[in-house]
Write a structure and sequence with these properties.
This is Acyltransferase. Residues 27-377 form the Acyltransferase domain. The chain has helices at residues 27-49, 60-83, 86-111, 125-133, 149-167, 173-190, 200-218, 222-239, 244-264, 271-282, 297-316, 324-331, 333-351, 359-397, 401-405. It contains 15 helices and no strands. It is mostly helical.
Length: 408
């Protein structure tokens, strides 16, 4: 699993296509995704089963998420540029992200017969709309699985990048990284709650999202749809999200990942990455929405630093042979990411509270849980993700309706 020379679209966390595709993969990015998935899994597992081992000088889960977002920023815009085809890009994204996502959502609803759905999930149609678009966090609604919140920012990034690509300004990644970092600081100072409240952002965004997606895929009114969707994503990010400064900071991190790729290609410098890093680090310092332990300066700075060092270290080692198991974890990381939290809740409901049990019991239960998650992730990756990715690639190769009607 050594160095390869070309890339495939790799998202956060639901990134890449099958390892069996003709297009070679960047193994170091898979390794990073594997690290990120394990970090998030441990962040959720340790408080319930081995609380003594949970670190508090940094946040394991946010560390994993930041690694995911850097990977996504590094590869997604370049993937769209290489394709040069908005329609194919979105078909690929839909068939990459939605199958296992919908399967997990359905499984949680079935589990609700025995175990209540999370309290943060509204019991109305606004929740259906928010889950359908994946824009949960930016319309201030909870997801059926706790980890689904990050997919909101992944989707916002896709929509914004598409609009920038269609507008021909997509190569100014460093400027966007710094800009979103500045927005994060200002939002932290001025905004303490969503300005667009109630269920209607979920309803409106659902209608606009699917109408716009239909245009992007069909090719009809594609440019206008890209602009509308990008603008909607930004409005939701800043004015309707749970934590506006965090949403802007996440976009800054993702565009920093893109700026790193531009620098690698000789198309930009690293100073925007440094500037964006400083702004993101400072964003929660004076924010009115910074009451969690992990956004205090010490843990927040440490979390950011570890994510950055991890990404830089993997990038420095990209010419070397990487551990096969770590790369394999990256291949199944999207399944790990979505499956583990519902399974963790189910396991806790069955076995009860083991925080006061002996270390042998805690370790045995934790190891068994991880093995079950890895086994199920292997199955869902092989029998759900890969077949749907192949179907998406076949559909993406077919001409759109407008191309059939108006051949060139």
């Amino acid at each position: 699993m050594g160095r390869v020379s070309s890339t495939t679209p790799i998202g956060t966390p639901g990134g890449a296509d099958s390892p069996k595709t003709p297009v070679a993969r960047l193994a170091w990015l898979d390794a990073l995704r594997g690290i990120g998935a394990v970090a998030v899994l441990l962040e959720h597992l340790l408080p319930w089963f081995m609380p003594a081992l949970r670190p508090y000088w940094f946040n394991l889960g946010m560390y994993g998420v930041l690694v995911f977002f850097l990977v996504s920023g590094y590869i997604i815009p370049v993937s769209l540029e290489r394709r040069g085809d908005v329609r194919a890009f979105w078909i690929s994204r839909v068939f990459r992200l939605y199958p296992i996502y919908l399967l997990v959502a359905a499984a949680v609803l079935v589990m609700a017969i025995w175990m209540p759905v999370r309290e943060q999930v509204p019991r109305d149609l606004s929740s259906v709309s928010a889950h359908a678009t994946m824009l949960l966090d930016v319309v201030h609604l909870g997801g059926l699985a706790d980890t689904m919140w990050t997919l909101s920012y992944e989707m916002v990034f896709y929509l914004v990048v598409t609009a920038l690509f269609v507008g021909g300004v997509h190569r100014a990644s460093g400027a966007f990284a710094v800009g979103f970092g500045a927005v994060a600081v200002v939002a932290g100072l001025l905004l303490t709650a969503p300005l667009l409240k109630g269920p209607w952002p979920a309803y409106v965004s659902g209608v606009v999202f699917f109408a716009g997606l239909a245009c992007l895929i069909s090719g009809r009114f594609q440019k206008a749809a890209a602009y509308v969707l990008g603008a909607m994503a930004l409005v939701l990010l800043i004015f309707s999200g749970f934590v506006p400064w965090l949403g802007a900071a996440i976009l800054a991190v993702m565009f920093a990942g893109t700026a790193i790729r531009r620098w690698e290609q000789g198309a930009g410098g690293l100073w925007p990455v440094a500037a964006a890093t400083v702004l993101v680090a400072l964003a929660p310092v004076w924010s009115g929405q910074a009451g969690w332990w992990w956004v205090r300066p010490g843990p927040w700075f440490a979390t950011m630093a570890l994510a950055g060092v991890t990404f830089a270290g993997a990038m420095a080692l990209r010419e070397r042979r990487l551990p096969r198991f770590l790369v394999w974890l990256g291949l199944v990381s999207y399944s790990i990411y979505l499956l583990h939290h519902p399974l963790l809740r189910l396991t806790h409901a069955v076995v009860g509270d083991v925080r006061d049990a002996g270390q042998v019991v805690q370790l045995s239960l934790s190891a068994a849980f991880v093995l079950v998650v890895l086994g199920l992730s292997l199955l869902t990756h092989r029998y759900v993700e890969l077949p749907m990715q192949r179907l998406g690639r076949r559909l993406a190769r077919r001409p759109s309706t407008s191309e059939v009607a108006s051949p060139r």
